Amino acid sequence: MKLKHLFIAMLVFSLLWVSGCSNEIVNEVKGKENEFPPSMTGFIHTNGTKYEIVSGGYKWEREKGLNTQIVQTDAASPNQIAEKIKPIALEPNQKINIEIEENPQLSVYLWNQNGIEKEMNLHANQITVPSSKGKYIYEVLAKWSNQEVNGEVSYTFVVEIQ
C-alpha cells in the first residue's frame, strides 16, 4: 500500500513539473507581447538611409486584473542626450520620415540650448529640416493608447545641415 502511495505522489510531482516547464516555454514563445514595459524602437529615414533614434524617458501603464501597473523613468533632457549622439549630415530643407513601432501618435519638437524652441509641423510622420546651416536637436514624443497598454516615450536625434 505504501508503494502505491509513493508511486501516486511521484506521478503527481512529475505531472506538475512537466506542466510548469511547458508554461515557461509558452511564455518564451509569446515573447514581446508579455514584455512590460515594452521596448519600442524608433527610426528616421532620409535619403534612402535608416537611422535608429535614441530613447530617453518613458512612462507605461497597464491594467492587470484589478491592479494598475505603472513604470516610469526619468532621463536626461534631449539637449543632454544630444551631446552623445553623432549628428546626421543633411542638406537644407531635406525631408525626414519618422517610424516608431506600433504606429503611436507623434509630436516633434525642435530644441535649442534653453529647451523646446517650437513644435514642428508633422505630416504623414514626416518633417522638413531647416534651410540654415547648423546643428539641430529634435525630440519625438510618441504616445500609445489602447485597451491593454498606454505609454509615452521620448526619442532624440540630431541633424547637422551642411
Characterise this structure:
This protein is an alpha+beta fold and about 160 residues long. It has two domains: about 1-30; about 35-160, Sandwich (Immunoglobulin-like), CATH 2.60.40. It has two helices and eleven strands; from the N terminus they run αββββαβββββββ. A hairpin with a 2-residue loop joins β3 (about 55-65) and β4. The radius of gyration is 24 Å and the shape is elongated. The N and C termini lie far apart (about 90 Å). This is Lipoprotein. Keywords: Signal.
Give the SSE map.
Blueprint: H1 2-30, E1 42-46, E2 49-52, E3 54-64, E4 67-72, H2 78-82, E5 88-90, E6 95-100, E7 105-112, E8 115-119, E9 126-128, E10 134-145, E11 149-161
Parallel strand pairs: 5-11
Antiparallel strand pairs: 1-2, 1-6, 3-4, 3-11, 6-9, 7-8, 7-10, 10-11
